[in-house]
Design a protein that fits this description.
Number of helices: 14
CATH topology of the largest domain: Rossmann fold
Low-confidence stretches: none
Bound molecules: cytidine-5'-triphosphate
CATH class of the largest domain: Alpha Beta
Structural class: alpha/beta
Distance between the termini: 43 Å
Shape: globular
Number of domains: 2
Mean pLDDT: 92
Length: 402
Amino acid sequence: MENNKKTILLGVTGGIAAYKAAYVASGLKKKDYNVHVVMTKNACEFITPLTFETLTENRVCVDTFDRNFEFKTQHISLAKVADLVLIAPATANVIAKLANGIADDMLTTTVLACTCPKIIAPAMNTAMYENIATQVNLQILKDRGWLVVDPAEGLLACGDVGKGKMPEPDVLIRCAEQVIAKEKDMAGLNVLVTAGPTQEAIDPVRYITNHSSGKMGYALARMAARRGANVTLVSGRVALPEEPFVETVRILSAQEMFEAVSSRADDMDIIIKAAAVADYRPTTVATEKIKKKDGEDDTVIKLERTQDILKWLGEHRHEGLFLCGFAMETENVIENSRKKLTKKNVDMICANSLRTEGAGFAGDTNIITMITKDGEKSYPRLTKEQTADVILDEIMARRAQK
Ligand code: CTP
């Protein structure tokens, strides 16, 4: 068994969502975790061990007697090396056993011997999930420190519509990463991140906006949460999934973003303004859809400046706040960004050029230069998650020096 990467014990129990556990196993493996699957006998009725063995490149533990198997201590040795237990999907039956310390199969026996963090994703019929017995059992697990991932609502395999669906594999993978991917070096810090574009209404139908995807801001919020920070994400309208461990405040306009940020600023240790805030908005917003007017000049929209949120924060900053802005430029990146550093009274500007391939709005990578009063640090092309991490590393190092 490799020890240079973290080991996840994925428990799969007998529900129709068991097929989705294959995506979870595959996703975790792609992220370089060492995945060991333990299946209940009923789970093998829904999906075969071979599927998981092929995906994880590890032998699957099931409740069949197998002479080639180191059956004697297999469950104990797995329990010892596991850095995380993730049970998905978890049936009401297995939840009840785990809550009561019953160890009568390979999965429950192994998990009873595990001392590492544990995550469980219940998936079942709505009435079974809402039954007080199941709820009491889940509460017992929560009280013992398990992370219980609430089932999603939707059309269930039994035909009912309600709560009981296993969350999508991506959500479960994020939960696993939240628990084990990072050292919690930002524990206790309050971090506010802004992300995405703002929308400045012209009339009820139209608005002015920009190409920001929100990916950089969301990655910053995600990585800060993974490092243990209490994260508030003030987000414009984006097409990204909800960040599960982050408090998200949704806004549309620059003014709404200003209100959401300024009212929270005093409680923050770190503010990172990754949002692409519109600099201008229409002076008036028509209450009805603007119609074409023949014979009149209807081609001009009068604009006014929006509030510069970062500048306001720089002027009203409290002691101990670390303020980080972004600068998106098309020319003279460093020079223009350095001007923003002084003009807006911030500690750091992360500059990126819209003209460089691999940097900018829509993609999953970025190329940044961090600009501070005492210097510049340039980074090669990194994923937005890696970029977020180097930004947070720099902020943490600079806070420690203060
Ligand atoms: N910003 C802000 N409020 C605004 C405009 C920008 O808080 N009304 C913040 C952005 O979130 C970013 C930084 O200021 O962190 C720089 O944004 P950018 O658009 O590059 O610069 P501007 O200040 O708008 O300057 P210019 O448009 O002249 O380049």
